[in-house]
Amino acid sequence: MKSNEETKSFKNEKEAEILLRESRKRIDEIDNELFDLISQRTSLAKDIALSKEYLGIPIYDKNREDAVHEKIERLSVEKGLDVDIIDQIVNMLTILSKNEQKEILRRNVDGQY
What proportion of the chain, given as a percentage, has pLDDT over 90? Predict the structure, then answer.
């Protein structure tokens, strides 16, 4: 990721330790936020699966996935992030969503929805 300041100079070890501790704390907070967002994203699978079932649309939608990957590539470049790694993360999120949709549709067939 690009930063405004390529190198950070410290006056002493204490300053470096404080920055390290604060940065790690913020990473932990961001990780918690990411898990919340992944949970929210995955919870939308029920709505998507039931809508797709009603509309007769298959779970796998190549056009949608291609559009998502194009957007992810553009955003990765804009933010200075490794496109391949971000693409892998999005692939994992897509697999998580499709697996959840399949489970929801299976339960729907079994009369649980």
Answer: 65
